[in-house]
Amino acid sequence: MDDIAATARVSKQTVYKHFGDKTSLFVELLTGDMAEADDRVAALAAAIPRSNALEPDLRAFARAFITSVMRPDLMRIRRIVIAEAERFPDLASTWYENGPEKAYATFAGWFTTLHARGLLRTPDSMLAAQHFNWLVLSIPLNEAMAAPILDTPPDPGVLHRYADEGVRVFLAAYGAGPAEEG
Fold this sequence. Notes:
The chain is mostly helical and 182 residues long. It has nine helices and no strands.
């Protein structure tokens, strides 16, 4: 807290007055960084339910999404939250609600609309949302969690490959082709 107060050029008492405690300060930093990541992809995300070119629009979103999620600062926060989840379960819950859970809800909303429009077959839109998320993110995210975090973001070409393939596999599973008989 001394370092934070010095960086902000305020007294430690001012920091505590504004945030209350270290956990509240960390929650504010966490949610602020996550909101910034959301802002980076918001316009692309808002366009998906109205898309008339679903594959390229999903691909553009997935590329922006994976690039945003894989930022070194967000990867550091993810590691801290996971490492401290047992000691600070409320912090972990806040991270989950503002990150993965929020993304799933957004994607599920898209997929419900796109299903109604006949562009996807997603009768369980939440499961489809979770599949989409992990088809795009799982490999680079899991690799990053097991490697040292660098100060530079991962190679965009590598991330875009994962995004593109995630979208391709998602559309192969959920695309609105001929209805399956069952």
